[in-house]
Amino acid sequence: MVLQLVRRTAVFAVSLVVASVVAFAFMSVLPGDPARVALGVNATEEAVAATRAAFGTDRPLVVQYLDWVGGLPVGDFGRSYVTAVDIGPQIVDRLLVTTWLVLSGMAVALVVAVPLGVLAAMRHRSAGGTVISAFSQVGVAVPSFLAGILLVTVFAVRLGWLPSGGWVPPAQDPVEFLRRLVLPALALGLVQGAVLTRYIRSAVLDVLREDYLRTARSKGLTPGRALVRHGLRNAAIPVVTVLGLQLATLLVGAVVVERVFVIPGLGSLLLDGVANRDLLLVQGVVIVIVLAVLVVNFLVDVAYTVLDPRLRRAT
Amino acid sequence: MTRTPAALVVGGAIVGIVVAAALLSFVWTPYDAVQVDPGTRLAPPGFAHWLGTDTFGRDVVSQLLVGARTTLFVGVVAVGLAGVVGTPIGILAAMGPPWLGELVMRTNDLVLAFPALLLAIMFGAVYGPSTLTAMVAIGIATVPSFARLARGGALQVLATEYVLAARSAGRPRTAIAVRHVLPNIAGLLLVQASVSFAIAVLAEAALSFLGFGTRPPTPSWGRMLQEAQQFLYLKPELALWPGLAIAIAVLGFNLLGDGLRDRFDPRLADRR
User: Fold this and answer.
1) Is A277 in the B-facing interface, judged by CB distances under 8 Å?
2) Within a 13 Å sphere around the CA of A79, how many CA atoms are in the beta-carbon half?
């Protein structure tokens, strides 16, 4: 198992490096000179050269890359060519907002999917199971931004119960924070919940067919009890993997949902960066999102290796 | 045993309707889908405009029909690109030396760390947002699914006795790949194509919604939604139609994928 973990860690480290090269290269292939863009068309050659030196874009690309990547571990993402503001603190601020969104979305998804998925599996031959399956099939087809718009239409426009968007930090006003978090969290979570329901259903169905569950039943446990005592832990292994993958989907979904609800998160920062042609900012946000995905995948891998005794013995 | 799965019928029918709508839009729409008419702004549904008009007076039904074309076009190109690139890579990874297989799988994982939406936004930042950048980005992000599936399927086929027989008879590797591997994994690839299509429809809608997909004035369901969002207090149903169109199309392709899977892999049939 140790060997397996070392190997996975090595793959993870290489992936990080390659991903950072890709993100950097992508933004560097762009035609045009940031210094010239910043100064406008009437700037003198001397002024452009001076600005280039100030930005550091007159150095070879390899040096620029190493400089950029070297700053990342300490949260130094460089200074924007467009707004001349440090990028690191902006990303940290926005990441916090997006993290709230993603975690609350994940919570909604779990609250919806665990009971529904288990129920759908246990009643998979009855009408109830079919209804749940149909519901999740439809839920999968609804994009989170559409769910967001529908939720706003019903709960903000028609009923007026909740605000249609905006963001209040929890430290400033906890009640208002929650009121504004509800709809975006539901928009993200309900859709993910529908996806998760299908996975949980099929994981539980697999477990229900296992011999050890039959043994547990023959010892006199009720179906529900046998499942809770022996089945769910085993069903959890594939579900953990899906949860990890879904975290990535949620992160990307948050980009769009932030747009629907006018939430100042990482996604809004990314889109603003693109709109202002602030490439260093875009590069920074991209690497943060990709890093998050890679870290989650790595953690899932590790959890998998540690959780599943069969994988442990395989190495 | 030969019973056609219900999902296949329903999914096939829905996909058929979407395709028919897209094809119809080439020859007929009630109005010119991009014709701006200030006189009929935000008209309610009625005899003249079945589902009403949008803020620029454009007919909603006409836009939905042309939007189906946009959606299918992006899906076909993106999924086609992913299949054409991903399938050979996967088969090559299965037939080549073990290090190649490992390299392909690790590269796959790395590409998966760049979700379609993120890639499209990056492409949009560099090359400017367009239908092309959206299609390429969605296509690239979909390559790993095809490569992984083709590799897994190919490994299974390569372990069969008839391939062993073909090998010992001295058939060249390319012949084995084309004559034996490809036909045997075609069903799996078709299932993947259908599921990927659903994801591509969602991605295109999200990108157009954000302004990173199809540019105006070409109608697209995602942008119709984005434009409708500004009128939620006034005309909420404007958001409903493109939303329904997206959800129905995605549902259709997902069901079709499920149905095809049951068809090609009956062992799985009772598990879903």
Assistant:
1) yes
2) 9
